[in-house]
Amino acid sequence: APQARPQGSSGAGVPGVKHIVAVASGKGGVGKSTTAANLALSLQRQGLRVGLMDADVYGPSVPTLFALHSKPEVEGRMMKPLEAHGLKIMSIGFLVDAGTAMIWRGPMVMSALTQMLNEVSWGELDILIVDMPPGTGDAQLTMAQRVKLSGAVIVSTPQDLALADARRGVAMFRKVDVPILGIVENMSYYDCPNCGHHAHLFGHGGAKAEAQAMGAPFLGEIPLALDIRSTSDAGAPIVASAPDSSYAQAYGRIAESL
Ligand code: ADP
């Protein structure tokens, strides 16, 4: 008879960290980092102790999202995470110079990630959100295997191409027994601030239908909005800068359903 497995992948955990949750996407540019940052902030607002680890070695966005540009202090073998809005934050972008073209191979990605998990003094955390490198290649698979992930959130736009990649993401995590916490549809629609027109720029309902087809929870929709982009570029994502906005509430609902 099959043995009962504990929830989550079989890899190593991080002492003091209760849950590690990956935020992933099959494709770059769909809003994975924006979603990871705003979900981390939402969870923190719900009273949890939250860390955010930017593992997107190909294009770390967390330094920009939180306007953090100093190097972490080192104590012995351990790096101290930086802090912003009550989050403990570590990014590969703190460690390498901005603009460095990172053509990393799988094993290099893996060792950088291992270091960010094990040689950072995260302290006691209820949840560590990991902004994963985009894609479903070897690096992601290895990461999903070696780190004890409690679950994964997949971010997709409503477009067919992004959804096809999201499907590969779900398959990859399932292969290594990481529970799929659900799918977030980003850039779902656009409400014109001038005329109120509600437009589905990239199609509609795709992620929900895809989630249903894959038997994964659909976590909710985030619109394409100037305020989401501008607050992120300014270094204080929407949940931190406009916590009462409808956008922050949308992230809050998703965070509650995790
Ligand atoms: P990824 O991590 O998937 O590469 P990012 O989170 O870096 O994507 O987002 C890519 C770009 O799109 C960024 O400029 C970001 O500010 C913007 N963006 C992401 N989500 C939204 C949204 N819902 N509305 C407006 N802009 C968004």
From TrEMBL:
Keywords: 4Fe-4S, ATP-binding, Hydrolase, Iron, Iron-sulfur, Metal-binding, Nucleotide-binding, Transit peptide. Its cofactor is [4Fe-4S] cluster. GO terms for biological process: iron-sulfur cluster assembly; mitochondrial respiratory chain complex I assembly. One of its GO terms (molecular function) is ATP-dependent FeS chaperone activity. Residues 1-8 have a biased composition (Low complexity). ATP binds at G26, K27, G28, G29, V30, G31, K32, S33. Residues 18-177 form the AAA+ ATPase domain. Homodimer. Belongs to the Mrp/NBP35 ATP-binding proteins family. Binds and transfers iron-sulfur (Fe-S) clusters to target apoproteins. Can hydrolyze ATP. This is Iron-sulfur cluster carrier protein. The chain holds residues 113 to 370 of 390 of the full protein.
